[in-house]
């Protein structure tokens, strides 16, 4: 989960840190237009995270990985739309979708870590996955994304985000059946 979190954070911060620049340089939006896009990404996270958490409980019976994988697949699709459109409305819609979906896996990985350990170890578990995300993911998103965009243009940066999304899916898949509460209700 901690390794998956690295790749989720690369996508999260890759979009968060670089979307205002992309919107200004490529979409030719004003500073206020880029700020609107940035805000859409952030505000979409609130209902998205709530919905993703609810779905992981109700539909997947506490299994966090399936919902995280669905979110990352949705993020890949939104990144593809975002990177290939010049339509401002589609840019903003894809930012909203990315924002609504990327914060779900961030939250689900932390919750999954909490689900796996005794209560007295919950802070350590959450800290461990968070540390991997911030140190590995955020630093990589800042430094590597900038390098990749400089060297391979924006298409290289978007390819990096898609590759990181795929890697997060692979690592989340290893925890597919972790904490399935439907089995607990059958035993009771």
TrEMBL record:
Instruction: Respond yes or no to whether keyword S-adenosyl-L-methionine is given for this record.
Output: no
The transmembrane residues are 34-55, 67-84, 90-114, 126-148, 160-178
- Tell me which domain of life the UniProt entry assigns to the organism this sequence originates from: Bacteria
- Which Gene Ontology molecular-function terms are recorded? glucose 6-phosphate:phosphate antiporter activity
Supply one GO BP term. Answer: phosphate ion transmembrane transport
Localization terms from the record:
Cell membrane
Q: Where is the Major facilitator superfamily (MFS) profile domain?
A: 1-183
Cell cycle: is it a keyword of this entry? no
- Record's keyword terms, sorted: Membrane, Transmembrane, Transmembrane helix, Transport
What's its membrane topology?
Multi-pass membrane protein
Cellular component terms, GO, for this chain's entry?
plasma membrane
Which PANTHER family has this protein been placed in? GLUCOSE-6-PHOSPHATE EXCHANGER SLC37A4, GLYCEROL-3-PHOSPHATE TRANSPORTER
Instruction: Give the protein's recorded name.
Output: MFS transporter
Organism for this UniProt entry: Clostridium fermenticellae
